[in-house]
């Protein structure tokens, strides 16, 4: 009981009181701002959006899709778009790439003011909704990569690759497993405080994975002649010594914002789970391979390979079919994350992919990219029944593992 009271008081102190104070201070300013924006509307329309830049996937994906939609004239290109963003960004290199193309104001104070006015501003024409569009396959199929490295950045990236032992003709695959360390440590660094603990973010622990389950897939890439690079800004533990010079623990030995971006832009593909790091690879049209996928809309990109986590229902003493999970999630009316947490609390647990399942996914994806294997037709038919993306080439861009499908066919019925 004491713990609950402390949490409630801290929520009031850090969340609600600042918002109430800010509203009293700045909402009146909104009533002065809106008439000015209407005057600008006579010359060039102004649209304002707020970036959630403290999580790389929360700003990279939406901005990438925004620029591709501008290119394809899916949204208005005649507007003057302004983006506010708090400091620091989760990846400043990516932020700087976008700033070459967009009017982004990095200011924690202005972003805070913007967020305070957002509940009111969103009902005006001047608000631009920058949410992630899970149906945006067409813009990846028809659009072009919206950002680029400078010549100096290319030279720096190649130099760093050489320092890691990777030559200009070598290829490599990036591996990333979400763990409990990143979120709470990053938020403490960003807030210059120690007020957050792992317990504050335990609600998303079901998304975490063990990097050791990737080792078989890393060894496979090495045997194929490529390099396997373990990614991560803040990780729980280093990779064990493998004795293989082509398996590189980049996250603990070489890591920087710039090289995170450069590696994810240049890799043959990225193997990941549910973390937003993949949006850097899709920004540069690199294929991504998604293990341990939690059933929802498939992330968008030029080429997405994926397979699911299974859910074990302790009441039924059996796995629940993916169709049934999808049906229950829609019927619940809950947000996706809330529904998954409800399942875990009341009914059972999600079972992570085994190291052999991850290996099979990587082998299959690599062979499809090399043109020596084709996607499994029954598996692709199954996902067409799951998702209605509205784009005719969806099932050529989002590819369900055929090996996983055949092994778990009864869960797709």
Short description:
The protein has 413 residues and is an alpha/beta fold.
Give the helix/strand class: alpha/beta
C-alpha geometry: globular
Question: Count the helices. How many?
Answer: 17
Radius of gyration: 22 Å
Q: What's the mean pLDDT score?
A: 87
The main sheet orders its strands as 6-5-4-7-8-9-13
Low-pLDDT regions? none
Q: Main β-sheet, in a few words? A: 7 strands, parallel
Order of helices and strands: HEHEHEHHHEHHEEHHEHEEEEHHEHHHEH
- For the termini, the CA-CA separation is 45 Å
Please count the beta strands (DSSP E, at least 2 residues each).
13
Proportion in helices: 40-55%
Q: What amount of the residues lies in strands?
A: 5-15%
């Amino acid at each position: 009981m004491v713990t609950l009271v402390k949490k409630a008081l801290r929520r009031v102190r850090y969340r609600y009181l600042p918002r109430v104070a800010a509203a009293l201070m700045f909402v009146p300013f909104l009533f002065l701002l809106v008439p000015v924006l209407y005057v600008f509307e006579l010359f060039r329309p102004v649209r304002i959006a707020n970036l959630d830049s403290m999580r790389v996937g929360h700003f990279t994906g939406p901005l990438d899709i925004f620029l591709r939609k501008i290119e394809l004239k899916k949204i208005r290109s005649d507007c003057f778009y302004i983006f506010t963003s708090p400091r620091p960004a989760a990846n400043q290199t990516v932020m700087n790439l976008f700033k070459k193309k967009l009017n982004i104001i990095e200011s924690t104070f202005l972003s805070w003011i913007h967020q305070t006015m957002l509940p009111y501003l969103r009902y005006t024409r001047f608000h631009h909704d920058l949410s992630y569009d899970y149906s945006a396959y067409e813009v990846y199929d028809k659009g072009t990569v919206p950002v680029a490295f400078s010549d100096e950045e290319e030279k720096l990236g190649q130099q760093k690759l050489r320092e890691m032992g990777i030559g200009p003709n070598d290829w490599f695959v990036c591996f990333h497993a979400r763990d409990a360390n990143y979120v709470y440590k990053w938020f403490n660094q960003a807030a210059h405080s120690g007020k957050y603990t792992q317990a504050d973010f335990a609600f998303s622990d079901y998304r975490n994975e063990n990097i050791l389950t990737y080792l078989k897939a890393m060894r496979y890439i090495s045997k194929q002649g490529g390099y396997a690079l373990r990614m991560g800004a803040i990780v729980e533990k280093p990779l064990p010594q493998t004795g293989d010079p082509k398996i590189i623990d980049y996250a603990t030995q070489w890591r920087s914002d710039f090289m995170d971006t450069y590696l994810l832009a240049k890799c043959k593909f990225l193997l990941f789970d549910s973390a937003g790091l993949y949006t850097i690879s899709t920004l540069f049209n690199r294929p991504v391979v998604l293990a341990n996928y939690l059933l929802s809309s498939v992330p968008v990109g030029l080429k997405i390979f994926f397979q699911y986590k299974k859910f074990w229902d302790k009441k039924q003493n059996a796995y629940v079919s993916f169709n049934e999970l999808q049906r229950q999630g829609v019927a619940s009316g809950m947000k996706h994350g809330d529904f998954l947490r409800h399942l875990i609390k009341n009914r059972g647990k999600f079972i992570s992919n085994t190291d052999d399942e991850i290996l099979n996914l990587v082998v299959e994806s690599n062979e499809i990219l090399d043109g020596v294997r084709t996607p499994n037709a029954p598996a692709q038919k199954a996902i067409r029944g799951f998702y209605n993306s509205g784009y005719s080439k969806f099932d050529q861009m989002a590819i369900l593992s055929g090996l996983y499908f055949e092994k778990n066919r009864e869960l797709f019925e």
